[in-house]
Fold NAD-dependent epimerase/dehydratase domain-containing protein.
Amino acid sequence: METAGKVGLIGAAGAAGQSIAAALSTAGRPYRVIGRGQSALQRAFGNDPNAEIVTWDPADPASVKSAFAGLHTAVYLVGVPYDQFATHPPLMQKTLDGLIAAGVQRLILIGTVYPYGRAQTMPVTETHPRNPHTFKGKMRLAQENLVLDAHGHHGLETLVLRLPDFYGPGIERSFLHGVFEGAARGTRAQMIGPIDVPHEFVFMPDVGPVVETLTRTPQAYGRVLHLAGAGTVTQREIAEKAYALAGRAPKLIVAGKPTLRVMGLFNPVMRELVEMHYLVTDPVVLDDTALRALIGPVRKTSYEEGIAHSVEAARRSAARAA
């Protein structure tokens, strides 16, 4: 392993960005957070002396180049609304152009399981065919291909790190978030069913230390790697554990695919969930043997501990709201 230069987190204000920033800060490494909105970055990172806050406009090449100037490694975390996935490839291309113009040496894309499509083997290794049958999978595949094709050109090395669905304390974009809120407040939790199928979730605070290590691991680049969760669990088991921690019986409303279709008539995000519903009925479970062979043991928080942290965060949030 090497001593890596400055890391920039592009699209840093989300859950993954905050996890990686925490790991960089714990390691005493200065880093840059890059996003469109100064206020969101200031709220998330303003109290960390290791953080440098920079805003960018992806539509302005000069702004992109300036935001990346002086970085050794960039980590790409940019999310887009679920009904705007067509913007993923062009945003990635603008980013790559800016990285090359600024002389950045490495890029890590934090990816998803979407490019695989339906799992043909279980668990899924990095050699599994990428054959997405959904529009979102095709857009993520195009994004990945841009990153992988850029490796070895213009002095840039690239890596794609794929994650499964995630959860954790205060992470609103996790589809388990409503379960923790329901448990903490004693209200009903709306879930997407079926909820008795074994599924895999990664505890988001576990992601940061892995990415921090990968920024210092030269042999990781020019490939795809997986970070898997702590085994499989069903959504019902998570709900039962969460409500039990709060001393309550589970109150669940389970929406299946037909319900999502109806809700989608009025809600564009729900409409977009329909095509990805296969991930609930036939989850993609990742194999991360290659990652562990490369960097050694990976800390994985148990579901019991992760659920406890998530419920406690929801309790604190509910208390503040009250």
Q: What stands out?
A: The domain at 7-167+201-231+284-300 is CATH 3.40.50.720 (Rossmann fold). The chain has a mean pLDDT of 95. The first strand starts at residue 7 and ends at 10. The two ends are 48 Å apart (CA to CA).
